[in-house]
Amino acid sequence: MIAGVYKFFEQFFSPKATNIFPVKRVPSSIKNLLAGGDIYPPIAVHDGFRGKLHYDYTSCIGCAMCEKVCPAKAIEMYPVVENEKKSKRIVIYLSRCTYCSECVNICPKNCLSMGKEFMLAGFDKYGPAMVVGSVERREHEVKEDSGA
Predict the structure, then answer these.
(1) Number of domains in the chain
(2) What is the per-residue pLDDT for 25?
(3) Residue 8 falls inside a structural domain
(4) pLDDT above 80: residue 127
(5) What confidence tens digit (pLDDT) does each residue in 19-29 have?
(6) Which of 27, 56, 106, 125 could link 33 by a cystine bridge, Cβ 3.0 to 4.6 Å?
(7) Do the domain assignments include residue 50?
(8) 146: in domain
(9) What is the 3-state secondary structure (H, E, C) of the chain?
(10) Considering the domain boundaries, does residue 116 fall inside one?
(11) What is the extent of the structural domain holding 55?
């Protein structure tokens, strides 16, 4: 009990470790702040930062290893035809992603990588900004026949 109280006061009086991004003070109106453009540039991130996922459609072989290891089930496979062969490709739902980097670590072709982009807020969690590979999916997805 005493150790917990000591730790509380130690952290309470220690200097703050948070950044002042995107502004130095709490604005009275976010809308006016954004319209005025009085925002600091993004802070630099260190090497190894796990930000927005990047996906290289052309180097993907459709092995589905990334889908199998994803703990958040943020990766979904869809059918495509590449070089007259049936295959599969992926889309990644960033709104579900935990940024654990398991998919990047297991990918045999290194077609997945973690970027440094961290400002990912949006109004549509299934919009093109929040679904990696959605543009390629619209271009290449093949609808599978359910009959015969």
Answers:
(1) 1
(2) 65
(3) no
(4) yes
(5) 555 666 667 77
(6) 27
(7) yes
(8) no
(9) CHHHHHHHHHHHCCCCCCCCCCCCCCCCCHHHHHHHCCCCCCCCCCCCCCCCEEECHHHCCCCCHHHHHCCCCCEEEEEEEECCEEEEEEEEECCCCCCCCHHHHHCCCCCEEECCCCCCCCCCCCCCCCEECHHHHHHHECCCCCCC
(10) yes
(11) 45-140
